[in-house]
Design brief:
This protein has about 350 residues and is an alpha+beta fold. It folds into 2 domains: about 170 residues, Aminotransferase class 4, branched-chain amino acid transferase, N-terminal domain (D-amino Acid Aminotransferase, Chain A, domain 1, 2-Layer Sandwich); about 160 residues, D-amino Acid Aminotransferase, Chain A, domain 2, CATH 3.20.10. The chain has 8 helices and 19 strands.
């Protein structure tokens, strides 16, 4: 069973101590410890029960825990925003809950009911309200984590599981405005293979990408584009983000084949673009096709949309426009962030208010 070893600030909230001293303008996308987290546990064949809030702090875990030995764990990434209407909201949290349930099924873990997931993230944000940055200064990043915490020897499901949620304030991904990034197509490494776990947010999907990413950054690129593991010709993901490109007014994105994460931002862009009257095609997108596109961008929770200024493959380099964000990319970015900030109408009903009373 998981035990708690908590930090020494349990009597006085860290948020209360630092709230007036926080320099929101200096926030980056990095960890800042906050006041409170949420935790609940269950056994393999038991139902999940609501957990409780506790001070944010370290935990001890068995050396034989399934998550440590066999990677039986997955996570979600979401944000809480302060809006122009003075509310604190999530963006489509129900989709995060459902994606975690699909991931739990794939990794043989008991899925967390949507009601418990939503209640947990609401409670943690409400308890850390002083850490939610002002509108335009960033957001409160929310990290739900599900793991096999019970001890097991031999490749088998853990006997018990922990679901926890912690939060941290993060700054805007783009400081000083949206900027285009330069990407490198990897011809040596692959992110996922058919039949694997590439379609869920398994923790084991992320460590293998650290070395290719570091190599690309050392060569002057922002991130790696991964090709499919079968034909080595079709784009799958950009690091841990989904890919889009625009050609002759049509928006293209790699189809979901089980090797690509079904991003919630990806789904939102598809729905928004179609609402705008654009044709959106989910299909196999070859590297050759993408490098001849008019615009390209990647998307995810952290940046929402990252415009792509160039793609390099071997000795070939494609530059989009003059290396600055394209008009369609910019419009989609402004629309989604406008919905999140409530500066434009949420016509899709995507926002979920955090109860703060």
């Amino acid at each position: 069973m998981l035990e708690r070893h908590l930090c020494s600030h349990t009597n006085v909230g860290l948020g209360e101590m630092m709230n007036n001293k926080t320099d929101w303008d200096s926030l980056t996308f990095s960890l800042t410890p906050t006041d409170t987290m949420y935790l609940t546990e269950t056994k393999q064949d038991d139902a999940w029960m609501p957990g409780d809030l506790r001070p944010y702090g370290n935990m001890s875990i068995s050396p034989a825990a399934g998550v440590l030995n066999y990677g039986q764990g997955l996570f979600e990434g979401m944000k809480a925003y302060r809006t122009a209407n003075g509310r604190v909201v999530f963006f489509r949290p129900e989709e995060n809950a459902r994606r975690m349930q699909r991931g739990a099924d794939r990794l043989r873990m008991p899925p967390v009911p949507e009601s418990i997931f939503i209640d947990a993230v609401e409670q943690v944000v409400a308890a850390n309200l002083s850490w939610v940055p002002p509108m335009g200064k960033g957001a409160l990043y929310v990290r739900p984590l599900l793991m096999g915490s019970g001890p097991v020897l031999g490749v088998a499901p853990a006997p018990s599981y922990t679901f926890l949620v912690y939060v941290t304030p993060v700054g805007p991904y783009f400081k000083g405005g949206v900027s285009a990034i330069d990407l490198l197509i990897s011809e040596e490494y692959h992110r996922a293979a058919p039949g694997g776990s590439g379609g869920v947010k398994a923790i084991g999907n992320y460590a293998p990408g650290m070395m290719p990413s570091k190599k690309a950054k050392s060569a002057g690129f922002s991130e790696v584009i991964y090709l499919d593991a079968e034909t080595h010709t079709c784009i799958e993901e950009v690091g841990a983000a989904n890919f889009f490109c625009l050609k002759d007014g049509v928006l293209y994105t790699p189809e979901l084949t089980g090797t690509i994460l079904p991003g919630i931002t990806r789904d939102s862009i598809i729905k928004l673009a179609r609402h705008n009257g654009m044709e959106v095609v989910e299909t196999k997108v070859t590297a050759e096709f993408a490098m001849n596109a008019d615009e390209a961008f990647c998307c995810g929770t952290a940046a929402v949309i990252s415009p792509i200024g160039s793609i390099t493959k071997g000795e070939s380099k494609a530059v989009f426009g003059n290396g600055t964000p394209g008009s369609v990319t910019t419009s989609l970015y402004n629309q989604i962030t406008g919905i999140q900030n409530e500066t434009i109408d949420d016509i899709f009903g995507w926002l979920h208010e955090v109860p703060t009373n």
